[in-house]
Amino acid sequence: MTVTLGDYPLFIGGNWSSGISDKRFDIVNPATEEVVATVPNAVPEDMHMAIEAAVIAQTEWGNSVASYRAQILARAAHLMRERVEKLAEVMTLEEGKPLADARGEVLYAASFLEWFGEEAKRIYGDMIPANTPEKRIVVIKRPVGVTAAITPWNFPAAMITRKVGPALAAGCTMIIKPSELTPLSALEIAKIFEEAELPKGVLSVVVGNDASALAKVVMDDMRVRKISFTGSTEVGKILMRQAADTMKRVSLELGGHAPFIVFDDANIDDAVEQAVICKMRGMGETCVSANRFYVQQGIVEAFTEKMATRMGQMRVGNGLDAGISVGPLIEPAAVDKVDRHVQDAVDQGATLISGGKRHSEPRGYFYEPTVLANVTESMLVMNEETFGPVAAITPFTDEDEVIERANHSPFGLAAYYFTRDIGRVFRLAERLEYGIIGVNDGMPSTAQAPFGGVKLSGIGREGSKYGLEEYLDIKYISLGGILK
Ligand code: ADP
């Protein structure tokens, strides 16, 4: 059955617009290869308009009281939850993830709006003791001003609200440039904010398929004071370089290459369950997906067997169909990359335990859930983010060895390990060079916790009070003449 969502407009300065160029482009369902909607193809002039509107809106929004901003965010969160079915369907159609996962993402996305709305009321300052009786030292927090977000396709709603939530809570305006592959969820979120009575201009959604041209407008404009980006390390580096000229603040959430370590004292069934969740969430297309499985020698065979059984039970297909737990990958190039990693591993001597090929669906970008054993460090799968449903398993002997192997990566986003030894829990937490550590936990992400990485995985944190600070400037007020 062909499902179409029609023609979406852009949301610029609080108005729905067909864009200056009048050109449109197609959004393709990765499960069926059919066009599900069209969107206007914004040009730099559209982006200029969004920035103008944000600059105008910034003064009043930045000076508004926190409880007002909190109310709007709460309303938006409520509307998102009310509309979970519709939003989930849009997401499945544009991105492919199964409907149940899409529902989960919509609720997760709403949680950022709710949590940051509540947190808006707790943007506190400081009083610092001065050196003389005539003076007082006061520290206040102010919104950084106009901000921009560039977001990826793998979480079409949550990667937006994780940025919009803290921006609006802090009193910043924001322009979103969503991925050209999944802009529909972003535009649905704009509709929600319009209904939540967000003042015009505070939020814009500019969609276009020339990402670098649109981003350039933002990066060159001195009035935009911050850029928050989630995506590839390659683009993150470009943006960081571009940010230098206007000294914008940057938050970069980039690639990962997560190790997933299982010690022989772990509860193996629990480790397998968490491994499947961690590996297969979003078909393995997340930056915190487990990419390298290090399993201690004595349990590696049992773990591999259980993992293959669980992965083999997952049904692959169109995410709108009942009982499907693995959808398509985002585009043909993603399937090619996964296949290249698998072929390279097999060519270099890995054992293919299950899967290992494109799925037999007549259309769509599907790949079978795959388990590889006897993987070695020289294989592509151990050195590059696979971004697909492949569990590459390798044995290890002891703790020092596995720490060294796990840290041997330019990335440092998430690491996971399973053990019941409390000393080891702390030793690894401190020695693994990663921003997020899951101990006996394959899915640590949540609105109130700091998400972000070290090394090539990026700069800054999202979620939590630390994520809010990224949208706030510290202002020091030295107050004299107290005794006059
Ligand atoms: P992925 O490989 O996950 O698609 P990208 O980094 O290519 O990640 O894309 C993430 C976001 O960055 C998308 O919104 C995309 O349009 C945008 N993007 C891609 N290239 C550039 C660029 N040169 N400058 C700014 N944004 C870009």
Account of the 3D structure:
Helix 8 links the parallel strand 11 (224-230) and strand 12 (249-253). The protein is an alpha/beta fold. The chain has helices at 44-62, 66-82, 84-95, 99-119, 158-170, 183-195, 211-220, 233-246, 268-280, 300-312, 332-347, 399-407, 422-431, 464-469; strands spanning 6-7, 10-12, 15-17, 24-28, 35-40, 126-128, 136-143, 146-150, 173-177, 203-205, 224-230, 249-253, 258-262, 290-296, 351-354, 370-373, 390-396, 411-412, 414-418, 436-439, 454-455, 458-459, 472-479. The chain is globular and about 75 Å long. A seven-stranded mixed β-sheet has the order 15-16-17-14-13-19-20, sandwiched between helices. A six-stranded mixed β-sheet has the order 10-9-8-11-12-22, with helices on both faces. It has a three-stranded mixed β-sheet with strand order 1-5-4, with no helix packed on it. The longest helix has 21 residues, at 99-119. 38% of the residues lie in helices and 22% in strands. Residues 150-152, 177, 179-180, 211-212, 215, 231-232, 235, 238 line the site of adenosine-5'-diphosphate.
